[in-house]
Amino acid sequence: MAANHTTHSEEPAKRHKHEGPRKHVVAYIFSMLLTLVAFATVMGGEINASFTYILLLVMAALQVVIQMGFWMHMKDRGHLFPIIGILTGVFVVFTIVIMAEYWTWW
Amino acid sequence: MSAHSHLDGQLPHEPERATLEGRNKVLGFWLFLGGETVLFGTLFSAFLALRDQVGDGNPSGQELFKLMTVAIATVILLTSSLTSVFAIQAMHRNQVKAMQGWLILTVLLGLAFLGLEIYEFYEYVHEGHKFSTSAFSSSFYTLVGFHGAHVLFGIVWISLLIAQVARKGLNVVTAPKVYVAGMYWHFIDVVWVFIFTVVYLMGKVA
To answer: Which residues in chain B are contacts of A21 at CB distance < 8 A?
Structure first.
């Protein structure tokens, strides 16, 4: 906010470099690998359940960071509000999940 | 390579942010996605609280779920997320034909995903897993069905955008719409990541 960013009118002089597909293909391959690990862990069978749970949640969290960062452009500049908004949403969701679990069964 | 095209061409770089209306549309859509996060969060919490309430003689998730079908559906949806990224990149290069092509591919993959899901639900119902069978089945169909409804909505939305761009061309009015639809599609993909993790994989371990 504070930094005086150059306006759009100055930029064409620098010639925009369009980002290539490579980054997104890499993000896709990483997503696939994380998915594969998650499915293989469960399909492969006999690993202790609580370890599997933690592993699955870590795989999912990593995948979400990759997809939102690269595909929804959240790692790009000027995405402070979206990041704050989504983190607020995640906080609310965690509260709801914990509340539902505890108030229903404990 | 195409750096010249928008110097002499009509479209600015990142046409979705060229107007205030476009920028507001993107920001407003993030607010909507925040609301969607909470919506799916409540459905997930209901599912997590009720997933063991199967009742006597009804099938549990562990017995029902076929991970192969889920894995195929996941690959399809992940791939469709990539094709929608390519559509936005084509838009940034002002290659309307390529953008339309990637969008059509995205819609087709979405249809394939939806077809698999309908087939899956059909199988479950035949195995005695109906909406009102148990608390588990109700919360399962509500959560996964809501996601499926979102996929269907996205398919209709993106199809209409393809038609609109074909009629009116790509400009600073239509570009934000395509961009926002791409964001929506990624969000649906992210929700699916949690569904296959929490519902299917964790359900299989339990």
So the answer is: 85-86, 89
